[in-house]
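Internal tracking record. Fields below are filled automatically when a chain is submitted to the structure queue. Please do not edit lines marked as system-generated. If the sequence contains nonstandard residues, flag them in the REMARKS field before resubmitting.
Queue: standard
Priority: normal
Entity type: single polypeptide chain
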Amino acid sequence: MQKSIDNNSEERLGIRDVLTTPALLRPTCLCLALMFFLVVSGIDAITFFSYTIFKESGTDISPSFSSIAVGTIQLVAMILSAFVIDKLGRRPLLLISEITVVISLAALGLFFYLSKQDTSVKGTLGWLPLASLILFSIAYSIGIGPIPWIYLEIVPTHVAGIFHLPMVILFIFM
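SYSTEM-GENERATED OUTPUT FOLLOWS
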């Protein structure tokens, strides 16, 4: 065991080594890109302003109920994702998740655009904000949310400390 610890301490690499070694550069770029898309997916804005989004939509559905429904569905989807990620594959789930997030946010944006043009849209498409955010929450929870963190395991253990630091910094400060 001591020999293993000594070998690992001898193999430690710096940031320069991570960025210049081809075997480490690809996972670094992949993980940075996944973390970037996780951050810019809009989950924080959706979570923090879901009540306001539902209130501004002017529908008959209660903003409180809608926010609770979205949060509950996101929790259930996140729990279910733990069971399906390895069975269905990370890449397909990530691609499906990204496409679904784009479609659901586009539908939400279209609703607000149309409702500014014509107020009767709120009556006919009043269900769209809730459906869009539920779809967004499910898509986020099965792909964009958990998979970038799972991909951090592809890094060799002797560079994991130096590798994970930029990922966490990117996640926190974006």
